[in-house]
Amino acid sequence: MQNSHPSKDIKGGVGSVLEGKKICLCVTGSVAIIQSVYVVRELMRLGAEVYVVMSHAAQELVQPALFEWASGNPVVTKLTGKIEHVALAGKTENNCDVILVCPSTANTISKITAGIDDTPVTTIVTTAFGSEIPIVIVPAMHSSMYNHPILKDNIKKLKNYGVKFLGPRIEENKAKIAHVNEIVNQIVAIVKKSKIKDDLRGLKILVAAGPTREYLDGVRYITNPSSGKMGVAIAREAILRGADKVTIIYGKGSASPPAYENVKIVNVVSAEDLVNNITNELKNEKYDAFICAAAIADYMPAKVVDSKIPSRQEELNIQLVPTPRCVESARETDSNIFICAFKAEFNVSENDLIEKAYSRISGPKAIANMIVANDVGKQKRGFEDETNEVYIIDREKNVKHIPLEMKDEIANEILDQVVQKLKQKNKDDIW
Ligand SMILES: Cc1cc2nc3c(=O)[nH]c(=O)nc-3n(C[C@H](O)[C@H](O)[C@H](O)COP(=O)(O)O)c2cc1C
Q: How far away, in angstroms, is 117 Cα from ligand 1 center?
């Protein structure tokens, strides 16, 4: 546990969310190992101490010196009398907060499933199971390897034992490892929790996130500054809490949607596009809940000019018409789904915020079952911020106030309410 290595001068340079946390990064014999170096560095920039463990096959691909440079810590290449597996993953005072196998070969996944531990990596994972340290596996391999039915079964089995799988991204006929920033985001989400809830198992969740673009002509559009962070956080937390499937209908946001295998990402541009995709999803698959966190434009140009409107005209009048209604269309398509809507206001009193939001879910025209209200006019509660303050309101006008918090925590609070309502529904069978 040295602190003096010059490579550690980047620690905490980007943030402190992982300060005091120890990540054990296990690398195996996949060419995606080159990405792991960036994972180490990004985790360190958020304050983490990273300890790298290499399988023998990984050492055939790169030298341990690369990871010693990257992490500033000695690399475990074999188990010795120091019982490195117990030090890092045992029930010890200084053990790691999470075991991240990235990249993981097909071989390592299947060995872990069979309970075999004959490499430094598999022994670390075996030990972590016994000490209940969260295990995250990021697979990488050719799709022909990934499509092996036994491997698929093994992944399913490990998921049932609580192992989190991140990715893969299927690209160029390969099951590539998830993007570095996505891996880092997931590790942050896991490390921040002492225990991950598993209460969305068996459920399918549809999420709308990000802004929409309403084109005036070929090059110009109306939009808003939504980053998609809130909806992406909800999708990520839903997967971490065991949801069977999460589909994100995603406008042009800047946040990276989670790269888990059971996440379907549908990229959309306009409000019309978004609404059409939501109704298609609801027609084709039975979802348990729809959470509409997208910042959908309320108006769109009545007609889109199929070229570029000439510049520098004296005046330009554009007629705007309302966009298709998202929550209404979802309800028309599925009368039984639980719908959580969002309502953003700008610089209003707390009372006005709650009343305006509640009016959307009360009375005979009520469509959504729950609504999340926030004031984007207040500092640190805006579209692009990492934080938010919300009021979660149900049809009985129960109001749960979540003071200023990181968006992933807000996402968890929203999901707590969704789970509670879904449980009630199973009991009573009506909303
Ligand atoms: C250049 C090279 C690239 C490889 N890439 C992968 C890969 O991406 N995924 C995989 O599952 N196996 C890959 N393999 C095969 C594994 O290295 C092999 O199955 C090995 O036994 C894995 O051992 P380990 O899981 O202990 O690291 C690759 C092998 C070589 C030589």
A: 16
> What residues does each domain of the chain span?
13-191, 204-428
What dotted CATH number matches 204-428? Answer: 3.40.50.10300
How far is the centre of ligand 1, averaged over its atoms, from the C-alpha of 105 (Å)? 6
pLDDT of residue 2: 47
Pocket flag, ligand 1, residue 57 (CB < 6 Å) = yes
Q: Using CA atoms of 157, 160, 164, 166 in order, give the dihedral in degrees to the nearest 10.
A: 50
pLDDT of residue 196: 60
Low-confidence stretches of the chain (pLDDT < 70) are 1-3, 193-196, 426-431
Atom 14, ligand 1: which residue's CA is nearest? Answer: 30
Domain 13-191 in CATH 3.40.50.1220? The answer is no
pLDDT score at 176? 82
Residue closest to 136 by CA, chosen among 99, 175, 108, 97: 99
Q: What is the pLDDT of residue 3?
A: 54
- CB 369 less than 6 A from any atom of ligand 1: no
CA gyration radius, the chain: 24
- What are the Cα distances from residue 240, in Å, to 67, 223, 408? 28, 31, 11
Would residue 20 be called left, alpha or beta, if left means φ above 0 and alpha means ψ between -120 and 50 degrees? left
**Alpha helices for 132-207 (secondary structure H):** 143-146, 149-160, 180-191
Q: Specify the amino acid at residue 109.
A: I
pTM, entire model: 0.71
| Ligand 1: centre distance to CA 48 (Å) | 28
Per DSSP bridges, beta strands 174-176 and 221-222 are unpaired
pLDDT tens column, 203-217: 999 999 999 999 999
How far is the C-alpha of 377 from the C-alpha of 372, rounded, in Å?
16
